[in-house]
Structures
1.
Amino acid sequence: MTCIAFQIVPDIALTERLFDELGAKTGDSSGITRDSYGMGEQFAHDLVRMEAEKIGMECHTDAACNLYMVMRGRGDGPAIMIGSHLDSVPSGGNFDGAAGVLAGLAVASGFHRAGQRPPVDLVVTAIRAEESTWFGASYIGSRAAFGTLTDEELDGVCRSDTGIPLGAAIEQAGGDPNALRRGDRALDPARVALFVETHIEQGPVLIDERLPVGLVTGIRGSFRHRHAACFGEYAHSGATPRKTRRDAVRATAELVSILDELWARLETEGHDLSVTFGQVNTVAEEAAFSKVAGRVDFALDIRSECDTTLDMMRAELRRVVAQIELRTGTNFDLGDETGSDPARMNKAILAQMEQLADALAIPARRMASGAGHDAAVFARQGIPTAMLFIRNRNGSHNPDESMDIDDFAQAARLLCALCESWSGPPEPD
Ligand SMILES: [Zn+2]
């Protein structure tokens, strides 16, 4: 696909002004704070709504205060939705979330300035409460839009700083928790042809590979053992021979190293995977420098965009643990397993975006998303879903998030081309 002339040019000047205004009004010396269902998030919603109305978009909110900014299309087929969230973690950065909403406005304004309408309705969406730091629940806004927020969450989940229950916070922001309790759906998956979320990359891959844009293949699912332990026997470090020791540190270290080797091997074979021991501790009151450790507590987080890889790792974990137990005389208790299912992005749209990036000479690569996003909720509803990553320095959820507006512009060009060349919903995967 080469030599295609696209007419719709994203309105980058608009988005630069909006990023600046968001940064100025929701930031302080320690970073950006746009609290979910609080003043920071509300400011952002009011700001983008005002700008959308200026370019003739019809705006409405749902029972969870998600904001839909609609540019009417030429045809009446299912809509293209472009969106993300506008809340941030406390003292976070200016781009996590906001980039995805502003990218949608850049496209809509591009159509407006060209005096054209999109092929079908273009719905730029600002989703509420994506950051689980505030209410301790994931994807509140997007799940609410599909009527899947539970009564337990509305009543029992309270904001971490103020203690206000989620339902009351939604009501205070102008929403209707009773409609959510009834399971009313604001979005009908059959009326959404595509949901695209643009987001800053939260790792260093695009920086390292000098690429402005990533094309997301899937959002990793996970299985986690947050409270795992290895039990051995405390013993004197000088007096206990190697072969009679039941050393919990050595056994845990073996597990860490064997799983790391397994990760390296599976990665070479083409599996998407990450293996992390985020916490490994001996018991402070019982351990000492001159004692063989009798207990190690640890947390294990295994992620992949592929179900079968997760299943394989689950089986391997059991097998490796049993071997180490036998060899070291220790016992592992992995505790409860928690986790989430992977969410696949639509293959046809992914291929289309790859072709468009090529045609537009935008250097890009395929990559998995290691972090969760609202896009996962849309994908699980059976909606063809896509994600674009934008190169970003210094990770996310911190004030040093750093995205070049030129990289943002490349992603927005790709979105414009996708909308302009839209020929209807893709084949389901
Ligand atoms: Zn985000």
Note: The CA atoms of residues 81 and 429 lie 19 Å apart.
2.
Amino acid sequence: MTVDTENQTRLYGVCDYYDAESLLTAGERRVLGRLRSFLDEKARPLLADYWERGEFPDELAGPLIGLDLMEPAELRGPEGSPARGIYQGFRIFELARTDASLATFYTAQAGLFRTAIRVGASAEQQAEWMPKVIDFSLKGVFSLTEPDSGSDIAGGLSTTARREGDAWILDGAKRWIGGAATADVLAVFARDTADGQVKAFLVDRDAAGVTLEKIHRKTALRMMQNAHITLDGVRVPESMRLHNVDSFRDVAAMLRAMRSDVAWIATGIQAGAFEAALRYVTERKQFGRPVGSFQLVQEKLARMLGNVTSSLSLVVRLTEQQDKGIYRDQDSALAKMQTSLLMRETVALAREVVGGNGITLDTDVARFHADAEAVYSYEGTHEINALIVGRALTGESAFTR
Ligand SMILES: Cc1cc2nc3c(=O)[nH]c(=O)nc-3n(C[C@H](O)[C@H](O)[C@H](O)COP(=O)(O)OP(=O)(O)OC[C@H]3O[C@@H](n4cnc5c(N)ncnc54)[C@H](O)[C@@H]3O)c2cc1C
């Protein structure tokens, strides 16, 4: 394969066509390089088997956490300033370029749960919990979706929270919650029976009244463990309520940040699928020539590269805006919507150019192809994100509730 050979030290070759990586500092690239080595040497060899069995490779969790990726000590400025958005984006990209479940697993803590604490916890609560969130000594998940409410969760959320002295009693059910089985606490969103507003609670995973059931027979993200959670009269102390969550408006602020992470995941998946496909068509011969030498295959390669490059340019620019403090619902919704749309085409083209072998786990593209379907639907479906953008464009809400 002919790639840019001008700079041999680049982490990303052809899948970062316009060299977005040059926005990273040398220190950031070093940390990402460590992640690359871990993924290539320790994770990659395990993926196909675990995916087929529908199990998460638990032996990877400790070493992955041990890489100190969330707020790497070596990237911390003199004032302990947080890692830059562009580094965090490339961290997700790198994970997803290897495997969507690994990216989702890491982002459940570094994106979803951390965002719940950052946006929802009071200053005192943050001082106590955030260091533990960052070093994973407090593992948590984001429990918003319910069996009967996904897209319409804002109005449909029916899990209840009833105040009883210094505690709250939670009743209801949550669905699809990623990583719940290995979490210490579940960030649960519930409607206060007194004022009808949505509040948030950190619920001990082992608390009386909490039941977790693994969701079986998934055809996407098979390695990622998702749970159906039942809450039956679960008692939670007031001290474990996230004190800055007073209504769904605060939840929406969390979703805004989380959708950008998923846009990076959708971009990373495309990079992984494209690279695997490019490798294959360079090696595979038909009619006495590499498959990649045929004009019709090259057109598909060009489309895949166009999709990856558009997606990466989009998420990099979004992240630059967010690093300046500009967060708007429609911006992250547009990024999630568009990168997911392109992802679907990219993984389908990748699978196609690999032919029959493209439906086996041996060539990687089948895993990306299947996993992309879950990413397409979570963190706001295509339609819901389109409606958020449409509302911003026209001033008219087309949601029906
Ligand atoms: C693998 C996976 C992991 C997940 N992880 C988590 C997690 O960790 N925490 C969490 O809280 N949730 C999680 N989710 C839930 C996820 O966010 C929801 O699946 C998603 O919001 C969609 O909800 P739904 O599946 O109930 O689909 P539905 O809301 O039932 O939608 C079905 C279809 O109807 C369409 N639709 C709905 N309303 C409209 C409308 N007004 N106009 C047009 N079309 C509409 C949708 O776009 C979709 O195509 C996860 C989901 C998956 C699949």
Note: The chain has three domains: 20-134, 140-247, 249-394.
